[in-house]
Structures are given as C-alpha cells and as structure tokens.
Amino acid sequence: MFKNFILLFVMYFMLMSLSAQSVIGKWKTIDDETGEEKSIVEIYEVEGKIYGKILKVINAKRKNPLCDKCEGKNKDKPIIGMVIIDGLKKDDDVYEGGNILNPTNGKVYKCRLKIEDDKDTLQVRGYIAFFYKTQYWKRVSE
Known about the structure:
By secondary structure, the chain is mainly beta. It has one helix spanning 2-20, and strands at residues 25-30, 37-46, 49-57, 83-91, 94-102, 107-115, 121-128, 131-139. Helix content is 13%, strand content 49%. β5 (94-102) and β6 form a beta hairpin. It is globular and about 55 Å long. The relative contact order is 0.17. InterPro entries: DUF2147 (IPR019223). This is DUF2147 domain-containing protein.
C-alpha cells in the first residue's frame, strides 16, 4: 500500500512538471517597449500545431478594439477572439514554423515561442530575416 502511494505521488509530480513546461494555457502579454500589460492570450493545440487567440484586452479604454491596420480576413475585425498565433510546431524546446500577428500595426511575422527556466515566462519572438523583437509574456494562473 505504501509503495503504491509513493508511486502515485512521484507520478503526480512528474505529470505536473511536464504540464508546467507547456506553452498551452493563458498568458498575459507585456509590451516590450512600455512594459504595459496589454491582453490575455490563450495558446492551444489543434492537430499537433499551436495557435493563440486574444481572450481579453486589458486596457479599459479600448473596450472592443478592431484590427483597423490588419489586411485580408482580419481587416476591421474585433481583436478579441482573433487568432494571432498560427501553426507553430514543437522542435525540441521551442515552437516555431508559424506566424504571429501584431494587431497594433497589422503586420504578420514569423514566430518562435520558448518557455523560460522559471516555467511561468514565455519568450515570444517575432522576426523577419535577421531582424526580430522579443516579448516576455507571463502565465496566468487559472
């Protein structure tokens, strides 16, 4: 009986540590220039690919903002509910191979996500060729 308890205890903590390393979940976006909290993004997986959509805009002055600078299907659409991370795949400890949309300027960049050592910080990098910008988002506890 005691051995079973120890085994269950060890398995529980192994599963907790694995789930804590996942990008899946809710993240508070932080502007890399101002340090301002901007939104809550939910990152999820569909058929082995990673996606992210905006759940909430934190700035109370922007109640239901539209993506007026976006092009194509996102033009003038509500930012809340918009998929901004599209089609990333896991490669070792990073997720890449997809895109990220910046609804502030309407531009789409190649994207790379990586969990930092503290497990509650997500490194979000958008780039074109050798030029990139990095933000650090914070995990939102449920």
